[in-house]
């Protein structure tokens, strides 16, 4: 009698295993797919249909995949926070909420999950990569959104046993391939884990400091080609893995150091109007620091001097000090009806004569008198509008001035003389 009971029990157990793990339509699949389907079925992670088929080519919905994920990885809904607005009456609400509260899914714009949409291989890869906390690289320009996650599951061997033709990322995932991906994920999850560490913030640190920070947490630095930036030379401007992301100990963090700001040539704005000076300085990608000064020689709204001097090389975005005249401390004088910066009544002066009548310019033209070589650089003595009918004009300048006195007609040098 005992022997008969044992035989019956053995037949029952064997028949149960056959029912749980064998389907009539998977015998032509590759061995890795069959193994995965049988293993997950025996663990009650997936199931077949009442007619004894598995239907390996059928697609899987987003809701169905969340259930597989929760059961396979024994996920718990610790936060119990409501997730999406379109799952309130859905059969998979509990599973979707659980995956959401584990920080693995985000859904679509408008706080919807679209549970009955078929899931793609790209979405499957992304969810499995997040579930396993795989090392996700930074998305590069031109890459598809899923590329970092796809690369991560490839590196973790989650696609082992799957032909590449079966897994175009944008296609809807079928039951056989998903079964093997989940099976491989569970195998991966059983492997000994490397220690994970958080990536520190390295942007703004100099190269030495950044390297030390990484070494302290067990990470390594790879310094890429420096690029010009407003940060000082050698300071980190970019890191490829975001701050506070968890990575495996020993992971290499790519750092981009600054080559320093770009050098630009300081334009010459001495003698220019304020509007022209601002335009020249901004065009050179520099900033302007305006300082007002009274000046008895340089007319109002004209630049007296600048620091740094013209043609100097400075860092891009540097501030150029520009000293602008607010005009003389006394009233202006007139020379043949044209306004000219005053020279104090008690100053000794000399006279520079200019014959406007000998020019071949019709209409009005600009006459400008400048002194070069003065301790302040280039100084504007006079600027005014004239015509040929003005004839000879007389322009006073300081008697003790030294350097080169230059006469410009319409911004073209007309003549020069040396003052001693």
Radius of gyration: 41 Å
Q: Percent range for helical residues?
A: 25-40%
> How many structural domains can be distinguished in the coordinates?
4
User: How many E-type strands?
Assistant: 18
Question: In sequence order, what are the helices and strands, one letter per element?
Answer: HHHHHHHEHEEEEEHEEEEEEEEEEEE
User: How much strand?
Assistant: 15-25%
- Outline the biggest β-sheet: 4 strands, antiparallel
- Morphology call: rod-shaped
Structural class based on helices, strands and sheet pairing: alpha+beta
Low-confidence stretches: 1-21, 330-345
Query: Gap between N and C termini, in Å?
Result: 136 Å
Q: What spatial order of strands do you see in the largest sheet? A: 15-14-17-18
Instruction: Name the average pLDDT.
Output: 83
How would you describe this structure to a colleague?
By secondary structure, the protein is an alpha+beta fold. The protein folds into 4 domains: 19-189, no CATH class; 196-257, Trypsin Inhibitor V, Chain A (2-Layer Sandwich), CATH 3.30.10.20; 263-325, Trypsin Inhibitor V, Chain A (2-Layer Sandwich); 342-419, Immunoglobulin-like (Sandwich). The protein contains 9 helices and 18 strands. The strands form 7 sheets. A 4-stranded antiparallel beta sheet has the order 15-14-17-18, with no helix packed on it. A hairpin with a 2-residue loop joins strand 11 (333-335) and strand 12.
């Amino acid at each position: 009698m005992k022997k008969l009971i044992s035989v019956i029990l053995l037949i029952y157990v064997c028949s149960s295993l056959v029912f749980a793990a064998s389907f009539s339509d998977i015998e032509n699949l590759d061995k890795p797919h069959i193994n995965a389907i049988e293993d997950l079925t025996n663990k009650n992670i997936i199931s077949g249909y009442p007619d004894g088929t598995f239907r390996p080519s059928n697609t899987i919905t987003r809701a169905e995949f969340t259930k597989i994920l929760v059961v396979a990885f024994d996920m718990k809904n610790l936060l119990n926070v409501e997730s999406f607005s379109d799952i309130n009456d859905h059969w998979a609400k509990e599973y979707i909420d659980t995956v959401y509260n584990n920080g693995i899914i985000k859904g679509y714009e408008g706080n919807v999950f679209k549970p009955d949409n078929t899931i793609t291989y790209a979405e499957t890869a992304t969810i499995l990569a997040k579930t396993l906390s795989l090392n996700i690289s930074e998305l590069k320009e031109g890459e598809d959104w899923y590329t970092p996650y796809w690369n991560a599951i490839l590196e973790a061997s989650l696609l082992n046993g799957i032909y590449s033709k079966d897994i175009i990322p944008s296609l809807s995932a079928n039951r056989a391939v998903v079964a093997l991906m989940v099976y491989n994920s569970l195998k991966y999850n059983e492997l000994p884990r490397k220690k994970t560490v958080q990536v520190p913030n390295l942007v703004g640190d100099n190269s030495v400091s950044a390297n030390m920070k990484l070494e302290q947490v067990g990470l390594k630095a790879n310094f890429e080609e420096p690029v010009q930036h407003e940060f000082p030379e050698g300071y980190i401007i970019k890191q490829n893995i975001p701050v506070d992301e968890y990575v495996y100990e020993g992971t290499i963090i790519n750092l981009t150091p600054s080559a320093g700001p770009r050098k630009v040539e300081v334009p010459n704005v001495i003698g220019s109007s304020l509007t022209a000076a601002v335009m020249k300085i901004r065009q050179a990608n520099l900033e302007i620091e305006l300082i007002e000064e009274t000046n008895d020689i340089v007319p109002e709204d004209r630049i007296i001097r600048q620091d740094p001097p013209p043609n100097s090389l400075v860092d891009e975005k540097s501030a150029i000090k520009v000293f602008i005249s607010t005009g003389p401390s006394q009233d202006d004088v007139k020379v043949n009806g044209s306004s000219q910066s005053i020279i104090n009544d008690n100053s000794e002066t000399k006279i520079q004569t200019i014959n406007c009548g000998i020019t071949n310019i019709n209409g009005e033209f600009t006459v400008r008198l400048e002194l070069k070589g003065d301790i302040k650089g280039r100084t504007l003595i006079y600027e005014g509008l004239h015509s040929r009918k003005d004839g000879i004009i007389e322009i006073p300048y300081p008697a003790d001035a030294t350097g080169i006195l230059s006469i410009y007609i319409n911004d073209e040098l007309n003549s020069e003389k040396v003052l001693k």
